[in-house]
Design a protein that fits this description.
alpha+beta; 2 domains; 14 helices; globular
Length: 497
Amino acid sequence: MKITALDSWHSTPGTTIEWHPTADSVARTAHVSPTSGGLTFLAENHVRGAHVSARNGRPHLSYIGSGTTLDGVLNTEAMTSALTQFVARHSILRMWFDVEDGDVVSRSLPADAVEFEASVGARLPSAADVHDHIRARLGAETRSDSYPGFAFGAIVRENDFSIFFGADHALSDGSSQALALTEIVGLYRRALADPADTSPPVIESTSGGFAEYAQIEATLAGAHVAGTPEFAAWKDTFTRNDLQMPRFALDLGLAPGETAPVKPIELPLLDREGIAGFDRACKAAGGRFLAGIYAALAITDHELGGVDNYYGMTVFDCRAMLPTYAADQGWICSFAPVEFAVAGASTFRDLVPRANAGYDRAKKLATVPVGAAMAAMMAAGASPEAVVTAPNMLSYIDFRWFPGCGDDAYDRGVIFTGEGRTGNASLWINRDHDSVYLGSQTPDTPFAQYQVRRYFEHLAAVIDRVARTGDRAIDSPATTADSGRIVSAGLPRERSA
């Protein structure tokens, strides 16, 4: 499994198959009563933002998608059965939302009303046409203000086929997409193995689903706002950092609140041999692999940006903290600050224990739901503008630990997002058995591209040096000449000049 830009997915041309709800299933949506609740803080705010964007006529780009390729000839009936069971299992995929009189209201289709049918579409003659087809479907069909807030399809060929699934971010996150492909393929194979199986399918998640998770989050948020050590630690963090969210270490040439079109960037960091070397260096220094990544980021921030105290925001998948929801679909995550001093450290090995301690602290603070963290920022005295500013984030996903790892469909899979506008250069650093690589959605302006280029090149050089030698000296802040390893992930190879 790999996170990449859609245009970097090498999907072979073929004929499209589309799945949509049947007329009877659509008719059932008209009889669903609205309810309040059922959404997390992040998802509810996403719905509000999407409502404003739609009202202003902006294109829908806030989706997350995934795709993979399977060997053999597609059995449409078996795939229809798989999709139906998958959606019936996960309550969030049967929900849609609206904003009425300032409140977000939810509607949910009963599991027994889920029904899909497939139709054959056009033949797509090139990979670029495949990408355009997927992008068009996800842009048009994955809005969370109607059912379904997702799209599913296939590209069929003589001896194999590709499938793709995409959903509005209110319904999904990166881990959801990795889990979705594995689950759909598993259900498909079960249907293929015994087409005559008449046993009732498992149609509901073993947990209470996303709505139950959202209620737990709301309860936790209330408890933290009432006063906990973790809530106080969040306040202290913001106070120490000028009541601001973390920003990219270098000036990107954008005014506060200004954004630019996204330009995706990918950069390989470590191959299998490099992973082993970097891992040994981290353990020898007294920390985990991820602590070494943070130490390398802090060195880069210091040497290029003069930063003496590393301050970043990292994403945590709450499925790891609440294993009851380990297989559930939905935006099930939190974030927390990672802080540690760079000043006084002279080498990577000096810095790793500090980074390790900073990450341990962040794990504790990640138990504070996002809404309560925002309340902590306001309680510390932050301005409304600072509170709503999107932080520069780091997401680290180790794809070796997902249930599908080792299966061909999983290992061939990709995860991608819509490409809108950004004022940040947030990082997605991901690991599998063979590589560690960096991805980022960056502002597409000449100055921002110059800045992110030299930052990512410097970070890659730090990580490479540690992997090869086991350590690296920390230099004084200085300008670093850039080189040419970075490639644009947003342009397919066949379109490159």
